[in-house]
Structures
1.
Amino acid sequence: MITIDAAGMHYKELNRLIREGIGKGIKKFFLENVNGQYYIGDGIKGDDVVININGIPGNDLGVFMDGPTLIVNNNAQDNIGNTMNAGKILIKGDAGDVVGYGMRGGKIYILGNAGYRVGIHMKGYNEQLPIIIIGGEVGSFFAEYMAGGIIVLLGLNDSDEFDSEYFASGMHGGTIYLRKKIDFSKYSKDVELYETDENDMNFLKKYLIDYADSFNIPSEEIMGKPFYKIVPSSARPYAHLYTSA
Amino acid sequence: MLRIKNKFNTERDISGCGLCGIINAKRVKTNGSDIKKAISIEHDRGNGLGGGFAVYGNYPDYAELYAFHIMYDNLPAKTDVEEYLKNNFIIEKEEPIPTFMTSKIYDHPYLHRYFIKPKSDRPDKLFHELGDDDFVVNSVMLINQNYDGAYVFSSGKNMGAFKGVGYPEDIADFYKLEEVEGYMWTAHNRFPTNTPGWWGGAHPFTLLDWSIVHNGEISSYGINKRYLEMYKYNLALRTDTEVITYILDLLIRRHKLPVRLALTVLASPFYQKIDKMNGDKKELFTALRQIYGSALLNGPFAIVFGYSNGMVAMNDRIKLRPLVAAAMGDFTYVASEEAAISAVCPSPDIVWSPKAGEPVIVEFEEKKIPQKGGLISL
């Protein structure tokens, strides 16, 4: 275990200390007074490494990360989990824009809201199944160009409003689960809305319980409402953008 | 004297960039150390080729006079411009802008400031009756365009722009902004990628009391420029951000649009959204788009706009640049990154991300509580 006081520290130094620590076999990190340092956890490996972050981490948190767990006790900025490959990022506050950009594996759990373009270009292949679960609300361009993986939008504040525009535009793979029904015709032409069946819920259950445990909230609260499932209507939504069908 | 100047004729400003703004709605003044601290957190958003600050409320003793901050590349330029100023303005006070040698800023132009008002018997009265503001705008355009080596950094009342080539925290030291006090501050950290950074190309861009700091790229620059030239604005600084300042001057001061409407011209809702509006609102937004189509800004941007009554922070219509806001008592903070706000205000009352194209507006006097999300209610 190691505690690093990141007050006034440049991201290069902070990331060097983390990499050195991992190299020495340290499994548990506590980063204190973090404020805006970019690229925390950049490309690090180690399934049993846990990094606890106090303060606001800068952009590209967990970029290219391949195994470890990052726990953020505050809000976080943009580009969380950019091209992340494996591991887990927990955000106890809100997340900025472009969460999980091009993410190809691992989990990002956000207790609060997330910004614009969540899961843009997220992808999955065989056992690589990236998962993003958001507790609150999201901005526009949600799941834009999504190509694979799973995004779950819980809307735990149970607000009836859903004013995210350009929902899942260009989505051509993967699945979105919503914990509320929306008038889908208003939001997207590229995707279709279904009620979830038993198979869906069995699949989701383990992730929802993991999410609830991660934030110490009762899983019954999350699963007390029906879920809906959104899948792309086509694997090539823009096949005929420039040519006739 | 009439010749095309400014060799940086491909000036464009894209990518990177960081911005911050701090306003106290009750006009309580703070010195420049907070804004310096906030923008220094965004150090890596820039590359040392431009940093700058706008401050409001810093010249209370000369609040009724236009405060001209002028940069001179050479001393003959100063002699020529001063002759123009003496012929046309009453100069109450003039002095070098206080600067301080730092290890980081070693190469700089000559910087001078003038507290002036237009003469009532100035020569141009033979040809037209311009109001003072209009005459000041004409003078700024004339100096920027025609006086080689001279550029007006700012020309407003009780405000000023302090900018240059360097990281913003070093520019703050160069002008010793810890000793300057104001009730509103904006700051910029520049990352020019296509062209050289030069002193006149640093943000903020100002005219009269309007100041703009900008992160993004105005791809509609050509259209905006041609439109502004019809109204006799000279775009001499060759950078996209300049158009925003002049568009707002045109819309708000000359065409008398309320600030909020002027902002919807810059980031107009898409037609598909306007189509869903009702009655008067639909008619209004349709009219604005039709009349001011050439003032629409296309491309990604986040801006902080300062004016005599307050501050506005706004994104482009699809939020292609970051922007975070926070409020704590009478203070409102805006920045590209939440960490910049957190550095000077660790536990704000609220923190939020403004939605695309929906401005955060904070005005002085009657205190306004910033509301979450957009404020467009007509």
2.
Amino acid sequence: MAQELLSLQGLRIDGRRQNELRQIQCRLGVLERCDGSAYMLHGNTKVIASISGPKHPTKNSANKNRGGDEFIFNVRVKFATFSKNGERQKVVKNSKKLGEIEINLKNIFKSVILVEKYEKSQLDLNIEILQTDGSEICTVVNAATLALIDAGICMKEYICACTASLTNDGVALLDVSHLEEICGGPTLTIAALPRTGDHEQSVAYVELSQKFYLKDLNKIFDCALMGCEKIRGILDEAIRSNAFELVNSELTNN
Amino acid sequence: MAYNALSEAEKVFILHGIQDDFRNDGRSRRDFRPMELQTNVIASACGSARFCIANSDILVGIKPEIDAPFPDKPEEGKIEFHVDCSANALLDFEGRGGEELALEISNCLRITYASPFAFDLKSLCILPKHQCWKLYVDILILQCAGNLYDAISFAVKSAFYNLRIPRVNSALLDGGNVDLVLSDDPSDCDRLDVQSIPILLTICKIGEHCVIDPSIDEEICSSSNIVVGVSRNKIVSLKTISGGSFHPDTIENCIDLAISTAKTLDNTLMNILKHEESLTKSKKNIKCSFLN
Amino acid sequence: MKETILSNNERVFVEKSIEEVLRIDKRQLTEFRNLGIFFGKKYGSVLVSLGDTRVFANVSCEVNIPKTTRPNEGTVFINVEMSNEKMSESCIVTTRILERTIRDSRCIDLESLCIIAEEKVWNLRVDVSILNNEGNVTDCACIAAVSALAHFKRPDCTTSGDGEFIIHKSSEKDLIPTVLHHYPICMTYALFKGKIPIADPTLLEERVTNAGLTLGINSYKEICSLHMTGVSLTSPFLIQKCSEMAAERAKHVVEFIKSTLEQDSIDREKSNVKGFKQSIILTNVTSNFCDEQSIDNNAEEISEVASNHDEIIVVSQEQKFKKIDENTISTTKWKDENEETSSSDSEIITLSQSNQEKSKVESMQIDSSDDEEKETIILN
């Protein structure tokens, strides 16, 4: 590792503490022509997610489903060509990385959406990643959760995603930025349903890159899960304030 | 290109409204819808802007790269336009639906900017015959509510205004290789002269009358559309879109209408851009973020 | 090729049996299938079988321009091909898991692949083709890719100062082996109802559970990758439990790869390269857990594997079976019919082949004359 991820004073490269999230801002209903949409700013990562549906399956996706009655969930992810620092991203079709993200998102949300309510219908999730600064997948998941809620889709719970990393000395770091990603620490991305009532936290998706010792897995896991809980609070607040605003504007209009 | 299906009655309503100079959103034939502008929204691009006309929402990011000039134009830089229709914008854009429209728009921009009156490509030259800047102008259509051409041209102009190209301190020819020394200070950069950068205006013929800034419903009702590229009272491009035909006299009327509208709009746009810049300068430490 | 529809009966049968801690192929829930690694005549080509799943991996190298961000490092490209579709979902997922496990864990010494910094580096290309999918393709593909990389040797290069270099033929200079810092191994557990992990799922089990957890672990108990496939909700505790089980297994797999590599180099010195033909007649068998089991199963299995490849061997087992300790690999050699040799210190396995019958098939060029020495590693 070229650079130490945590200074002696316990501060990270961007001045955060070990278990501190970056700034998160989110908004619901940013696009008016969709059934549900959300904008998410996580550090410098900017993502717009939108939902269209539930609707009658289009011919194309019905064919892919071979005429089954199952719920069809399509995900499309796009990185804007100017989203990354440095060179302009080329427009690539069918890239494996994008394909993987799309498959993962599909699986994550199929596990929380009450699928049985949406048989014979189709739901499209579109993601535009405008700017990237690490933890893209987790920002995308959080934005998509908000968009789904904005669209009024039935879900079991909020699904929140968060990343965690590990320093050389085995200290877990919450919410990895791009700079920390390229500095070479391991990155764990986790998408989880938070603890509610009797239900324990359950994990819908994990992804890990770079190696570290097995005994540290506990630490990094707990750190990421704690981040998920924190993010749940932020999402919840955004949804509540959005609902409050909606009610208020309805009242003043009438 | 539109998604909304309109009934005959709705079409007739819009048509009659325009005859009486009273459009269905309360505007007259010469009115624009409310516009919104924000520059420097994407930190990873060297110049960026977001421009909305009502719900038509456009995001533009410009990235410069060093390239070799064309052999037949050794002293000129290059510009490349790329339009990306987000599937959020219109249901028609799903899958390959938006590609045709995207190509049409980027071609129109390319033709408009190719005019020598429109854009001084020589300002992008670093070392004649060897190196020049190539500007990638990437346009992302986030939402579409009609009048895309106008919105995109304003957004591109704003992004050019916001564009900061790293300053080249020295360029030396050493044998066959070019040695470039770029400035290390990120605030030390070159800006482009945007005065002459053209804007596009769509004139939409509905019934017997011409309107500007058509909404998506009006675009469906229109018999023909013409896009006029205007740069400082000069016409730099003309293009009819989505079929239909014009009488030569109507085209003249349209051009007159376009030039007069463009003049005021261009001035307003420049004033707003300057005003916005002074705002962000005075509040230097406040982080302006997209959509917030 | 369209997938056949999974019937409800099949689904319920598998679900019920797993609830009763039973598996269709008589394995324990945490038991892996037999693993076999066979090296080809060329360096860097390997055939790996895991149960009936078969994967072929081939490593090749070419000179390439390095990435601008890492000018003194070689590159690794991994390509997974499945015969049915070009860009199927499982193909993308497998490729990405392999990329993460092998490339991103930096197990290959990339700096040693540099020829001239910023100008020329070696690019290792790993082509993995799935020959037969009977479940758990990822593990099999990962073992194949890692052992192919470890087996691969590239030609030597000398640079002559001013940006020129010579690639030597193998006759001029010895080939250089690839340096692997560690061997990351993928271990897949199917997550049944998100609660019960099942090691090394078969295709049927994969389709019933529809969710899995793949862990990449090396023999030093370092986690290199972690990936959840399919639609499921699991507790974080379960993932940690799986990772511990996987770490145990990884050690044995790495040992097995290393011992096979060693055996291969010994064979090569004796210029006794067997190629892939050995994979067809005999299978290498490993396993973690060794409960008492009639050796008949083994014989059946061997004949079953063989018959899959149009080669019929009937091996009947007469007597004796003794329990073998966990996690030991014992080597049994046999030369001829009815000849019994066992070369293990603590355990005795007696295999007697009373009737060995072979029928050759034109398409497979198998030279299986009886005097040829063959080797099986049996652990069960």
3.
Amino acid sequence: MISRWMYISLVILFGFLLGPFVIIFMASFGANANLAFPPQGFTLDWFANVFETSQFIDSFWISLQLGLSSTIVSLVMGMPVAYALTRFQFAASGMVETVFSAPILVPGLVVGFAMLNFFVLLGDMHVMTGLFIGHTAILFPYSVRVISASLRNLDPYVEDAAVSLGANRLRGFLLVVLPNMQAGIAAAFVLGFITSFNNVPVSLFLSGPGVTTLPVSMLSYLEYYFDPTIAALSTLLVIFTVLLVQTAERVLGLSQFV
Amino acid sequence: MIRRPNQTRTVILLVAPAFVFVLVFFVLPLIFLLSQSVLPEDGGFTLRGYVDFFQSRVSRVVYLRTLKLGLIVTGICVLMSYPAAFVLARMPVRRRSFLMSLVILPLMTNAVARTFAWLIILGRRGMINQTLLSLDLVENPLRFIFTETAIVLGLAQLFLPLMVLPLVSAMENIPNDVLEAARSLGANRLTTFVRIVVPLSSDGLVLGATLVFTGSVTAFVTPAILGGSRLLLMSTLLRQKAVILFDQHAAAVVAVVMILTTLAVNLLLRVLRVQQV
Amino acid sequence: MPHLEIHNLTVSYEKNKPTLERFSLNVEQGELLSLLGPSGCGKTTTLRSVAGFIRPDAGRILINDRDYTRLPPNQRDIGLVFQSYALFPHLTVFHNVAFGLRMRRIPKKEVHARVANALKMVGLEDFSDRRPAQLSGGQQQRVALARATVIEPQVLLLDEPLSNLDARLRVDMRQEIRRAQQQLGITTLYVTHDQVEAMSISDRVVVMNQGKIEQIGTPEDIFAAPETAFVADFMGFDNHFSAAVESARDGKLTVNWGGAPIELRWHSKFSAPQPGTKAEVFFRADNARLSAGTEARGLAGQVILHTFHGNERRYLVETELGEFSIMQDSAGERFEPGAAVTVQAQTQKWIAIFEEMEQYA
């Protein structure tokens, strides 16, 4: 059923998908500062430059804190929603699902812009708080969807079994449901963290003086400098992501949730 | 799903915290945005902002360009994904899951890093210009950056995985028997692909097209880097109005037009999907 | 005094559309009672109400004369075996079975002894470290049974416990459940849609339809003497026809069969019918005999279809009373489609049901 030209299409697909990464990788070791291709020589200066540029280091920590806190909060609040959607039949379930998928449907840049205007209206809000709220809101769809998928894989009657054996509902959930959702929770966590960590559109408006996420500071660096520092930083981020995703994929089968 | 009578209170308790969060911090800001777009700071209710938007040549050009590039990107993604997705869907599970993680990888890397690669490829002294120069095909380097081609390439590379993933999962569900049945009834490979595989995977196609198109018309990073202020799309226009021109009213109009566009596309394609069932 | 009493139980998922309506039932100490019926008849709703997962709109549930109606399910002391087994995937067989004992804060030593005992009863003493995913369907079923009985519950409830097993395993497990139930002397409610399963395992069978009881009785009673057309149909009476009663006396009535009267019994619960009463007559495929050609006695018919089943042949025969499915010993004469035959009634196991007493005809 599969002919040779179909395999060629596969090669083209992966060439187009992954080729840019190869180029970034090569450029980050090249000695010429003007990004001419092919790169001449070999240097690690650009990597050193990444670590010497304080705006990258500062924004990395901010992105890390932001990613962890918004992912955890969106999971803690999203899990009960996923539970309600998968374990109960109720009239408003369609409405609830729509509300919790809305944050992906609305363009991220618009979300950030609308939130900024609204927060200004609310008064003096700390920049970090604004970023945290924005990121948490856009992570709900992922948390609810991934956790729902993992709950659907678990026989709903195991909770009833636990209750019939003498556990109350909460204990049944803690002793029987939660341990079987570990993979789903971990997958949701990885997915949520990466989504937050890479987000530009929502962060763009919500960032403020001195408080900027890593991708936004990469973007503003590009406005002033055009050298392989960004390539080096990108290489580091790709390696970081590959390790994270490969581990998650191997341990959890991440692709089934995306 | 287990049916339990009288569980309304439990459901409300479970859903309420997140629901209130989304309502206050997501829905309310959007309502405020909507009101900003029809209530300029110096006056009462007016649709002036929308009239201005569609009467101004600049914003009309930007809007149409955004839609046009979105369509082109979607088309490129469909063409590149379809046959490849079929090959992926028919592979042994182990090899497939490895390749699928390679498809996902770009999705998990930030857009700035991915778009930056195109600067190196398309730049004045980039890969393509150096190749053309060394082959003596051109005398002076060509300008690729800040062109529509650059934006299309960048966006296609960015959103290709969003087309491949739904297509593969739709095609995985086509049983091999069905394809063999078609072959046994006299269809050749191409006919089988066109008459069996394509209709049976149309759900994935529609979903993928929705994701790619709405992603393309709202993306910010790629048009910001590869288009800049010379070649504006809706997203970069929004930023320009809000941050550089400080015109929150006009920016709100652009934002609402973006929301309405993505909602319209989502609704349209949802209708398409429902009709096929 | 019955061990488990259900009084006028009413449950509705939707307003004014009760799944169960004023349903009452008594189960004796140590009895195994089956709830038999098609899907949607209310049997699982009954079971889940007894377990406490459904709060009834009206009615009461008593065990040992104690009112259970408002008691939360985790305080009921009831063992429940699920259709899907509902084993805890992350726990070993041992910890699955020990779960209920842990909830009851039984000392560790006793837990070990009782779990070991329960696993021995179901023949899984060597599997206590396995995870559910590493067990076959039949083994998982046994773990579920051990888990539900190890807590020595007042009442054991089984919800279609065998429907996920293949046919042969089902027969084995049936016997195993029955043996364990008798060994423990535990009052048991068993839900199934399979009449053979219900008959082979139960002390008594309740046939249910649309939230109401059609008939209660021993398996023998229900098999031989259904009270309603629904039960007759459900209990495998393949054939039926309408007839007018000609006469009735001494517990026998007569109806016309190919020009001559045949004598039939009717259910002892009903009084003697008047001549002219309409009756629905039911018989199974193996309670009639075919002979070649048209005979003076018997009902004339024509063979439409013949299928071979090893020891028997099954014929579809068209007669003036309708099409009948009739089984014959395959050693006997074979009739081809189109052949003229005479159907001889073997009426000892036939039964007549009267229309005016029939609610669901």
